[in-house]
Amino acid sequence: MGTNAWAQAGKNNHKMPAKTSIKKPAKPTTRKNRITPQIPGADRNQKNKIFLERADVLVADEKISRDYQILRGNVEFSKSGTRMYCDSAYFYEASNSLDAFGHVKMNQGDTLFVYADVLYYSGTDEIAQLRHNVRLENREVTLFTDSLDYDMVENLGYYFEGGKIVDAKNELSSVYGQYEPDTKNAEFLFDVELLNDDYVMHTDTLHYNTDTHIADIVGRTTIVSDSSIVYSSLGWYNTDADNATLYRRSLIVTKDGQTLTGDTVYYDRAKGYGEAFGNMILTDSVHSSILDGDYGYHNEKENLSFATRRARAREYSKGDTLYLHADTIRTFLEEGDDSMRVMVASPRVRFYRVNVQGLCDSMSVTERDTMLNMYDHCVLWNTNRQITGNVIHVHGNDSTVDYALLPDYAMMGEHIGENYFNQLAGKEMKAYFENEELRQLDVNGNVQLIMYPMEDDSTYNKLVDAESSYMKILLKPKQEIEKITMWPEVSGNVTPLYLSKRSQYFLKGFAWHEALRPKDPDDIFNYPEEEMKKLMGTEMAKRRSVRR
Question: By C-alpha distance, which of 161, 128, 127, 164 is closest to 147?
Fold first, then answer.
């Protein structure tokens, strides 16, 4: 009899037939019942052989059925180490099959127990079909469903109309699920949910081991907790250690507005940090910034992030985006009375913004006062001007530069045409800007000046060189010089260009570094080695070296 046939037969006979009266013979007879219980001494390990161990009532009546005998009360069967119990049953000895009803229980040793209201067992394919209020217990694992098929050969149970598996750590539910007690492996399909005290995981396909409590992510998955949301389609999650290794551009979104993605992402939710390898991107919507590189790290509890290997930072809070590159870029929250976000980049820093570009060995940017601090071999460009110094502090106001301060030697050049440059040098310099235009320049200590005044006909025909202790320059809109003041003593010369010598054109240590200037956002990654060597060999660099 096939599986469907015997199953249907069982289903059509949920109600036990009425008790049939059998007349006893008037005299003792040697006629035996058609089916008798197996003797106690029989080998219980025979392959696919079911033994009737006991029952309160056994009915074998051809008027009822030639195929099965009816058993009632404390019914017990055995099969290759498995025990089956029920209130009543139909036993098909010829096919080693049975239908069991009421308080159905199966157990293998002391580790696997299955409970149900109804059991249909087919000896042909060795499949046990358990229905209604099904519960499978395997040590700390419990499976709940209303329809469970159990393959006795493969030792594998599976449900297909909804169910859940609960272990010491998690509760997993799905439309389809299967569980293998030997390996502790479980597979879930369709509307899968993994739930515990810390987060909930949603997916349509999930592999899980109830011993290791590791979930293998093999489809589009979302993991939601009070601190973050994780999106992934491939990887694994260790629910004991609360960490994960994720692939295929997985994404982590924190409650504070940061996101972390990469080709491979390692995330430790318990410790609150993530690492990304390969095309890492870290965004911060609160601070309007993006950090990317080949490797990145973010600690949401310590508010610390960094990127390296082609690292880049983009800051767009002021309207005009700042693009910055360095070997390593870090961001962190500086604690104090008024916490302040800080970005530090080093070495080989290059940055680009529409109205200002620059480079240096290291740089920090503070959010609170919008201060950009440059250190060592610093060069800053604004329109046709170049400023160099050992240290440069640039203060931003909205999307424009407010002022620049050079406290430790400064030199400024302004290209006016061909090989002519207005030049200014001093120990300390402060430049004030308005609408991206220089409006005032204050220079203190050892002031040196070379400039080419523009004539009324917009030509240049003389060279002015001067020296003093202090100087102030005021400029009108469109960069027209309004007033130059030098004090207390001034020395210098005015020389017609046709009488000037080439040696008079430049201050000592002046060099125009246009070849180093980033031309666009992508140019920040280009690092002209030979030009940088020239910069490091300038008078500015030499003075810095001697001073240190």
Answer: 161
CA nearest to 433, candidates 484, 376, 367, 387 = 387
Q: What is the pLDDT of residue 429?
A: 95
Indicate whether 363 belongs to any domain: yes
pLDDT-derived band at 109, boundaries 50, 70, 90? confident
Sign of CA dihedral 400, 404, 410, 412: positive
Say if residue 216 is exposed, middle or buried (CB neighbours under 10 Å; 0-12, 13-18, 19+).
middle
Domain with 402, as residue range(s), is 348-548
Helix-then-strand count for the chain, H and E: 3, 38
| CATH number for the domain that contains residue 306 | 2.60.450.10
**Whether 235 and 343 share a structural domain:** yes
Total number of domains in the chain? 2
Same-domain status, 301 and 394: no
Residue finishing a domain among 347, 364, 383: 347
What is the identity of the amino acid at 243? N
200 vs 188: CA distance, rounded Å: 15
- Residue 419 tokens read as 């090989």
* Residues 282 and 370 both lie in one domain: no
- The reply to whether 404 and 323 lie within a common domain is no
Determine the distance from the C-alpha atom of residue 254 to the mean position of all C-alpha atoms in its chain, rounded to a whole number. 9
**Residues across the chain:** 548
**Are both 251 and 341 inside the same structural domain?**
yes
| Residue 272 DSSP symbol | T
Contact indicator for 228, 214 with CB cutoff of 8 Å: no
Concatenated DSSP letters for 224-238? EESSEEEEESSEEEE
Residue 247 exposed, middle or buried by CB count within 10 Å (0-12, 13-18, 19+):
middle
Same domain, 474 and 494: yes
Nearest to 470 by CA among 439, 438, 443: 443
pLDDT at 41 over 70: no
Report if residue 5 sits inside a domain: no
Average pLDDT, the chain: 86
Residue 9 has pLDDT above 60, yes or no: no
Alpha carbons within 13 A on the beta-carbon side of 473: 22
| Long-range CB contact pairs, 451-459, < 8 A, 24+ | 451/422, 451/423, 451/424, 452/416, 452/420, 452/422, 452/497, 453/481, 454/416
Distance CA 389, CA 407 (A): 8
pLDDT band at 337 (very low <50, low <70, confident <90, very high): low
364 plus 484 within the same structural domain? yes
Cβ contacts of 144 within 8 Å, gap of 6 or more: 134, 135, 163, 164, 165, 166
Nearest Cα residue to 4 out of 110, 156, 100, 122: 122
Of the candidates 431, 393, 396, the one whose C-alpha atom is nearest the C-alpha of residue 414 is 431
